[in-house]
Amino acid sequence: ARGAGGFQSGRVVHGMLVASLFPALIASHFPGAVYASQSLKFSAPVYVGDEVVAQVQAL
């Protein structure tokens, strides 16, 4: 963990671990849906205990 201008102190969650939650979330809310692709923007680090908000667009 870095200080000024970088990561705060704390445990950072790997971005792809966070992204791996999305297919399970979609499957639980939309049974039978085909999860074909995703586009990710990692705008800030995610720390252990953070709440993650996702925006989903169904086509």
How is this structure best summarized?
The chain has helices at residues 15-19, 21-29, and strands at residues 12-13, 46-47.
Molecular structure report:
- The protein starts with 11 loop residues before the first strand and ends in a 12-residue tail after the last strand.
- The protein has a two-stranded antiparallel sheet with strand order 1-2.
- It has one domain.
- 24% of the residues lie in helices and 7% in strands.
- The chain contains two helices and two strands.
- It has helices at 15-19, 21-29, and strands spanning 12-13, 46-47.
- By secondary structure, the chain is an alpha+beta fold.
- The model has no long low-confidence stretch (mean pLDDT 82).
Number of helices: 2
Order of helices and strands: EHHE
State the helical fraction. 10-25%
Which structural class best describes the helix and strand composition? alpha+beta
Q: Widest sheet: strand order?
A: 1-2
What oligomeric state best describes the polypeptide chains here?
Answer: single chain
Mean pLDDT across every amino acid position? 82
Gross morphology: elongated
Largest sheet: 2 strands, antiparallel
CA distance, first residue to last residue: 39 Å
Counting structural domains, the number is: 1
Tally of DSSP β-strands: 2
The fraction of residues assigned to DSSP E strands is 5-15%
**What is the rounded Rg?**
14 Å
Low-confidence stretches: none
